[in-house]
């Protein structure tokens, strides 16, 4: 009975002491073993009481061991947790993964560098435009059939608010706010309601150039484009194909001869080696008038190029959709180009 008191009163914070207690009471040479062995020597009339007492001692000791063990384990766990708060300070650190610039940004920055060398600055404007800056000022009055050349995402009609279909809108803004001579390029994102395929997307990037001064001629335009393609691609075989834009007259399509060295070249250029990278022309006198510049005094040229097209050639990317998928396996490949 004394032992029952002892077992019930026992307490410790320490696993070694708990083990000593367990061996003393429940071990193979422990007290309970001895008492059970004693049982047969107890006179019959006392057997019942003796039995009850040793059973009580047994359960008391067992419960004690169990409850102290649980308490010690949960203490151990919370110690582990608090260690996790600081982490294991001796562990070597996780490697830091550094991002890379997007290929569109890489090409855009390169284009800006090339044109800034010959005196062009960079201008920007809003992606959400009004009808005036995207169409009307650019010699595309209401109901002009050429408005359909660029399938437009309208945000609101009457008055029309839309996602700009080209960055020519930035040039209108620039001419409205600056006097010639003007030499500016406007890189930016544009939107067209077109079916998405490997060759075209409803969101893409353009860089437009505008040069307005006295006596600017088509020869200046061609030389500027030759200089650009030489710097950008290391070669400058270009073709200016007569074309039509409402805001330029005369107008041309700019093709660059890239060649057919790889399978991707075949895919991108449709097997011809030539790729259309944009449009250009002499700024239409009506556009100058709309922006309060006198066409009698000034002339100018403008061009617009697709940044994706240029990036596809340079980096051999066969599908335009890859630019917008944000797949790290694609993006990681531009790390060395930072
Ligand atoms: N804005 C035209 C387009 O997006 C390109 C262009 C710009 C053509 C400047 C001529 C002059 O298709």
UniProtKB/TrEMBL annotation:
Chain's gene name: pheS
- What is the enzyme's class at the highest EC level? ligase
As for subcellular location, the record says:
Cytoplasm
Q: Where does Mg(2+) bind?
A: 249
Q: Which GO terms describe its biological process?
A: phenylalanyl-tRNA aminoacylation
Q: PROSITE patterns of this UniProt entry?
A: AA_TRNA_LIGASE_II (PS50862)
Q: Any one cellular component term from GO for this entry?
A: cytoplasm
Q: Please name the Pfam families in this protein's record.
A: Phe_tRNA-synt_N, tRNA-synt_2d
Q: Specify the protein name.
A: Phenylalanine--tRNA ligase alpha subunit
């Amino acid at each position: 009975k004394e032992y029952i008191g002892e077992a019930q009163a026992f307490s410790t914070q320490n696993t070694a002491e708990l083990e000593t207690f367990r061996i003393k009471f429940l071990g193979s040479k422990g007290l309970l073993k001895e008492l059970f062995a004693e049982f047969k020597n107890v006179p019959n009339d006392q057997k019942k009481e003796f039995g009850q007492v040793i059973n009580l001692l047994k359960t008391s000791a067992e419960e004690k061991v169990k409850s102290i063990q649980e308490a010690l384990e949960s203490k151990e766990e919370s110690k582990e947790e608090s260690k996790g708060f600081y982490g294991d300070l001796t562990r070597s650190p996780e490697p830091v993964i550094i991002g890379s610039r997007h290929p569109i940004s890489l090409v855009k920055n390169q284009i800006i560098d090339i044109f800034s060398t010959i005196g062009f600055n960079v201008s920007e404007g809003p992606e959400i435009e009004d009808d005036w800056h995207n169409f009307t000022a650019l010699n595309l009055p209401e109901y002009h059939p050429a408005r359909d050349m660029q399938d437009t995402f309208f945000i609101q009609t009457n008055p029309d608010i839309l996602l700009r279909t080209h960055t020519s809108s930035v040039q209108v803004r620039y001419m409205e706010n600056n006097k010639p001579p003007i030499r500016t390029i406007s890189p930016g994102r544009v939107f067209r309601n077109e079916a998405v395929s490997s060759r075209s997307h409803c969101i893409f990037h353009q860089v437009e150039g505008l040069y307005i001064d006295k006596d600017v001629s088509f020869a200046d335009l061609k030389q500027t484009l030759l200089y650009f393609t030489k710097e950008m691609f290391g070669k400058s075989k270009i073709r200016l194909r007569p074309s039509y834009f409402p805001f330029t007259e005369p107008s041309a399509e700019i093709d660059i001869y890239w060649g057919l060295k790889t399978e991707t070249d075949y895919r991108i250029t449709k097997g011809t080696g030539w790729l259309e990278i944009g449009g250009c022309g002499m700024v239409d006198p009506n556009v100058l008038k709309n922006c309060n510049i006198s066409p009698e005094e000034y002339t100018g040229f403008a061009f617009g190029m697709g940044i994706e097209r240029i990036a596809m050639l340079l980096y051999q990317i066969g599908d335009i959709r890859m630019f917008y998928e944000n797949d790290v396996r694609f993006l990681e490949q531009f790390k060395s180009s930072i």
